[in-house]
Recover the amino acids of this structure.
């Protein structure tokens, strides 16, 4: 979509995170990474994106996508996509694949979040409006809760979560997995710095990663990066040692 000769791309990312469990039963043999890659590709086709590259360690599979990233560990699924992608449309088929191939029977918790769009009219339903997104999620998860943080007529952050009772989680999982997430959003960046992420400035993704200093943000990472044509950059990083750690840009 162009406006005044300048092509527009919606940089706001939609973040979907789902934790799975078998309730009080053992999760020993259940694993989301058992889902075949072909089935994952069919899910991403619904979302309107595709896999570009892949790295993994003993704890996590990390995919660079044509629109951002996907991370899959034993019982957590993370999909973050930008542009006009439709991640919520893959929820129902994903839940079926999880039960069929991964062996999980319940959704323990779910988080869906995004910033407000710059051009919401360009999105594909149900992602044009948060009320539409909430309606779809409520149809699948009757106990969900929706929130808006910030001013609705300016910058704000939308969040949908199940907010399960903590007692039920502690009773069903002997040792809950530690989980910390830090998400940083940046706008109005210096054009000279942003030019690093163009083919005019850098020959390949590795050069952009080094010139921008991203390779120094978290040391000892396996970096999987991609430089788009004519501009745009995406990367995943997974730790060589602390394999729970994952990072995307």
């Amino acid at each position: 979509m162009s406006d005044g000769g300048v092509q527009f791309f919606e940089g706001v990312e939609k973040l979907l995170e789902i934790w799975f469990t078998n309730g009080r039963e053992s999760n020993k043999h259940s694993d989301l990474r058992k889902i075949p890659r072909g089935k994952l590709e069919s899910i991403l086709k619904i979302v309107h994106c595709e896999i570009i590259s892949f790295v993994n360690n003993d704890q996590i599979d990390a995919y660079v996508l044509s629109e951002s990233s996907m991370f899959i560990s034993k019982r957590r699924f993370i999909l973050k996509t930008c542009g006009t992608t439709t991640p919520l449309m893959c929820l129902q088929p994903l839940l079926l694949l999880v039960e069929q191939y991964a062996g999980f029977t319940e959704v323990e918790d779910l988080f869906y979040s995004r910033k407000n769009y710059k051009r919401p009219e360009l999105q594909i339903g149900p992602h044009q409006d948060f009320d539409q997104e909430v309606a779809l999620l409520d149809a699948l998860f009757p106990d969900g809760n929706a929130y808006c943080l910030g001013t609705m007529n300016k910058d704000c952050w939308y969040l949908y979560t199940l907010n399960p009772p903590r007692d039920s989680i502690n009773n069903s999982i002997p040792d809950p997995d530690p989980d910390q997430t830090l998400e940083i959003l940046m706008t109005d960046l210096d054009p000279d710095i942003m030019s690093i992420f163009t083919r005019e400035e850098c020959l390949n993704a590795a050069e952009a990663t080094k010139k921008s200093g991203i390779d120094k943000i978290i040391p000892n990472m396996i970096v999987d990066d991609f430089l788009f044509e004519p501009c745009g950059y995406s990367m995943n990083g997974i730790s060589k040692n602390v394999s729970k750690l994952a990072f995307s840009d």
Remarks:
- The chain has a mean pLDDT of 89.
- The first strand starts at residue 2 and ends at 3.
- Residues 91-102 form the longest helix (12 residues).
- The chain is about 20% helix and 30% strand.
